Structure formats: structure tokens, C-alpha cells
Amino acid sequence: MSTFSSRAWQDIAALRQRIYDMPFNRELAAGTLSEPRFQFYMIQDALYLEQYSRALAIASAKAPDAAAMEQFARSAQGALVVERALHEGFFEKFGVAASEAAKAEPSPTCIGYTNFLLSVAHQSSYEELVAAVLPCFWIYWDVGNRIAKEARDDNPYQAWINTYSDPGFGEAVEAVIAITDRAASAATGERQDAMLKAFKRSTQYEWMFWDSAYRLEAWPVAA
Fold this sequence. Notes:
Elements: H1 4-11, H2 13-20, H3 23-30, H4 35-62, H5 66-80, H6 82-93, H7 98-103, H8 108-123, H9 126-150, H10 158-164, H11 167-185, H12 189-214
């Protein structure tokens, strides 16, 4: 019998291929992605991770067992500490002033994604929440490994590639996949359907996030 994660992964096969083929990821692998696009992405990613860590912390609080509580608590901390160090390193390398990063506002896509995650965290079940946070782990691990195989030796974005193709990150991904499958195995059919819907929606937002960075997305009207 297939697991929830294997079914969900197969269901997004076409979207995963679209993510692999995105100009942002193709050019990042080639090392030709423009600095303004990468700067935009890193600033928005930092803003995203602040809210993503909140969703992970809520998942930890809702978790029914100590192992899941520990995993999500550790991941929430990592989103703030470990990846913040990556962002700060890139900010320095690519000339993004700390003051500029601090005053940046989230893009429409960033707000849409984080509001979706926090809405699920506060208003939906634990099972739906773990399904919603899983794509950020799994998609990045998948994309990171694919890019690592294609990246040129002197790629200016090698630190990003190394982070998301690192075996330690892969262990965290496998842990969250296992947690999601355990949650699904005890869920009703109706709740599993809701989990799959949340998983797919987050995957759509992953595509949108990279696309928004490539387009240097701005608000269509000024506030």
C-alpha cells in the first residue's frame, strides 16, 4: 500500500517538472542568474522564513508525540538561525545593506504564501499543517540536489546549492516526510483529502515564489 507522501509526490509530478524548468532555477544552476533577481529572492526568502518558523513552532505545539515536537521545534530554530546566516552571507557578498534588508516589505506572493501557512496553522488540523509545511522541505531538497548535479564549478550561488543538497538537510526532510505519513495513516479519508489539498497548494506557492523573484514582483498599486 502506498504512503500519503508517495501519492502526493506523484500527484505533483507535472508541477515539479515545471519547477525544474523555471528560468530562475535553470539560470541559478548555470551561475548566470542576475544579481538583482537573486538579491530580491534572498530578501523575500528571509521574510518568508520568519513566518514559516512560526508555522513550524505551531506544528511543534500541536504534535501528538515527542519526536514530532522535537523535529518541528528544531526546524523552527533552524529556519531562523542557520538559514539567516546563509542570507547574511549573501547579503554581504552581493551588496545588500542590512538597513535595506530590514526595511524590505514582503511581496504579494510572499504574503500570500505565509498567510496561507499561518491560516492552516491556526485554523486547520495538525495533519493539514504538516502536509502544508512539507513542500518547503521536500521541494528544496529535490531542487537543490538536481541543481548540484548541473551547477558549474565556479557558481556564485554555490553556498545556496550546498545548503539545500547537504545530507543533513536531507535527514530533516526524511524526518518530516515520515511525520506526515504517520499523521496521514491515522487520519480519515476526508482529512487525507484536506492534507493533499494543502500539500498541493504549498507546492503551487513554491513555484510562484521563484517566479515572483525572477519577475522582481512589485505591488501593482502604491499604498
